[in-house]
Amino acid sequence: MAVTDTPARIRAAFAEAGVTGWLHALDIDSGAQLGAGADQLVCTASVHKLCLLVTLHQLAATGALDLAEPVECPPVGRTAGPTGLAAMLDPVRMSVRDVAYLMMAVSDNAAADLLLGRVGLDAVNHTTQRLGLGGTHAVHTFGELFATIRRDAGPGGARALTDPHVITRLRALDPARTNRSTPRDMTRLLGAVWRDEACTPEHGAAIRRILGLQVWPHRMASGFPFDDVHVAGKTGSLPTVRNEVGVVEYPDGGRYAVAVFTRTANTAATLPAADAVIGTAARIAVDALRAP
Questions:
Q1: pLDDT tens profile 14-41
Q2: Do residues 119 and 90 lie in contact, with contact meaning Cβ atoms separated by under 8 Å?
Q3: What is the dihedral of CA 235, 276, 268, 85, to 10 degrees?
Q4: Structure pTM?
Q5: Where are the alpha helices (DSSP H) in the chain?
Q6: In 3D, which of 208, 44, 63 has the Cα closest to residue 125?
Q7: Degrees, nearest 5: CA angle 268-272-273
Q8: Largest CA distance in the chain
């Protein structure tokens, strides 16, 4: 299948799954690329934790941050979430690097905000600007992001998020008012990490290791069900939003950065087809880039 035919196939896959989607894929070594809405501004949700992870390692590389530094996490005041520190009940003490692991592997919101408290949003935005990611900007911590959802949902609380009219007023779903990026920016960032351009080789290797430890197999990885193909990535989710960015590595040395962002009109929290199409679309794109 010619690369020029691929965007139509990707859009058809999105439509069949009931989502609106945007994608960019990049051959990290040759520079070959393709996209479907690659420059669309999108809500990053937890995908933005990748920008924070890179920031941490850039600061560590300059000596401004010690990744072994201990971090205290008391139970009071933790950012809410279903995983990691956010779901724990007792005081926790661990290193910066281990907090970063929880932030990425299980998308721990409390861990992310502990780290943002250490480095600040301005440092994250400086990192993305320095790397030339013009469409990428962090507006909120994760606690602040969820606070806007609670305020915008109103007195109905979480149950109101099943109402499409409530969904339309959530600032967290408006790229102009929340943490945002574009699919092309995210593959550019991943390419820089995999080529050791975002950090020193030591820190680039550490970032790649952590991305490879993500536990969620139901999105991008579902498109590559092979023992010898490795997928490393970061998901992001909000009401009606399902995202993942990652790198697919083949045993022949091929390395492909893929960013997929989706929205659906269906407000259900569980939509297996919407999750799976991220893997389907990524596979279509990578197959096209690998075609002779």
A1: 999 999 999 999 999 999 999 999 999 9
A2: no
A3: -30
A4: 0.96
A5: 6-17, 49-62, 96-105, 109-119, 121-130, 142-153, 164-167, 183-194, 201-211, 272-290
A6: 44
A7: 105
A8: 56
